[in-house]
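2024-03-11 09:14:02 INFO receiving multi-entity request
2024-03-11 09:14:02 INFO entity count = two
2024-03-11 09:14:03 INFO echoing inputs for audit
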Amino acid sequence: MTFTVTQHGDVNIVEVEGQLIVSNRQELKSTVLDQLDKGARKVLVDFGRTSYIDSSGLGVLVSMSKKVREMGGDLRLANLNEDLQTLFELTKLDTLFQISESRERALESF
Amino acid sequence: MTEQGVDVARLRREAELAASQLTESWEEINLLYSIGEILGRTVTLADAAATILHEICDTVGAGLGAIYVHDAPRGLLNPVAVLGADAAALPPVAVDDDTSIIVRVFRERRPHLAPPDERGGAREALVRRGAMLAVPVLWTTPQGSIPLGVVSLSAPRGSEPFSAGDQKLLAAIATQIGTAVQIDRLVKASVAQERLAHEMQMAHELQMRLLPAPSSLAPDAECAARVEPAEHVGGDFYQLFKLGQGRTGVLIGDVSSHGYPAALIMALTMSAMAIHAQSHHDPAAALDALRDSLSDELTQTEMFLTICYVVVDPTAGVLRFANAGHPHAFVLRADGTTERLAASAAPLGLGSKAPSTSETAWTGGSDVLLLFTDGISDARDEAGAVLGEQRVLEVASVRRRDGPSRIVDGVFALLEGHMGGGVPADDQAIVVLRN
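2024-03-11 09:21:47 INFO inference complete, emitting structure
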């Protein structure tokens, strides 16, 4: 799994490629915390190239979102595949995040 | 003296020298044999080290001696045997003590013969008088030698300093000590490993005993359940409650991650829920009370759990439930359809919203309650494909009339067939009930 960070206006986009699971979740967290330290306040996590998120991956998304909110920012998600969308709906995690169907929509929403 | 007389005298001297060398070699060989015997019959490293040190000092002619063994975690060379000095008073030497001869020999992995006027470290002063001969204790592997400690001799007997022969002999003995030290470490590691494996097995058995026997619901309900942790212990669990008037409470939970941290949250949840299920007959009220009980622990550990609590009341023909983020909770109907008991709130520990109670019709003796965790539906085959919720539901539906035990067996047969003997990545739990 790799993370790619790009900047679009004042939004930092983190693209997750592969799986977000117990072994790499801390890496994603430190990537996002780094962005926060550098002053980023709008973070978009793009899951367009993510096949699977396990329960610890979900946990880290929620804790990152809390952290960003505490810093006065906003963390949003985009591009979940059908399985991941279902997972967020079944676990009601869709109520904790603003989720967009594409990167473009997400960028417009900020 | 005649020429003949000179020859005889020379021959005699040579013969005496040869005899002396032979005696010396015999003593050395004898010493090596003795050490072999000592190592063969001694049980502890300390006993072996003390005996070996005594034998070397005797053979080489040294009044003081010590064997140091490396304690890597603490960065020390600890004396394990001392001769000619008070063992209790001899301190360990730190491996970064640059003044110490012992340390230099250990770090450079080379013997050193320090003449009487060479300064050494203060911490080895008790076993130093005059010259000091120190050689590294090495364990030789195909990748190279690993330093394990140092053996030092001092206070040479008489006026003779330690010789190159003494150094060679001490190096040979140090190799044997190295083998003994390494064997001692391997034995200790093996004993510790065995103890750990035993303790982990005990923890597994203890956790399995926390789960109630499905037969405890008889005669109110027929139930079957199975939990398989991915490690010795895990965070998937179920709980069953007899609530009176024929009502039955069934709970399934899945703590994020697995292993010991998850098992602790699981035990905490079960003990809190045992109280709340009896004092709150409304499922959402019970989960709300549970949320309060676990709040601090979940915040501190950054863990969370999906949980679904169902109360089946066959007399009223109603099933009531509260679901906090648990994805796989179903009722299998007589007409072959399945109804999902959908979550009304995010998992405990993640969201701030409390789950609410929903209800659906329940036909006693016909409908089947099926709860399982994602360790079952997300199990992967060798190619990485997930089993999927739908296949679990199909197997359960086909066996609906056969009863809970046959459903659990069928789902696990499906699961094992899919995984093909692979090791599960996550805990797996299933509970099935009809009444």
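2024-03-11 09:21:48 INFO post-check: DSSP finds four helices and six strands in chain A.
2024-03-11 09:21:48 INFO post-check: Residues 83 and 99 of chain A are 14 Å apart (CA to CA).
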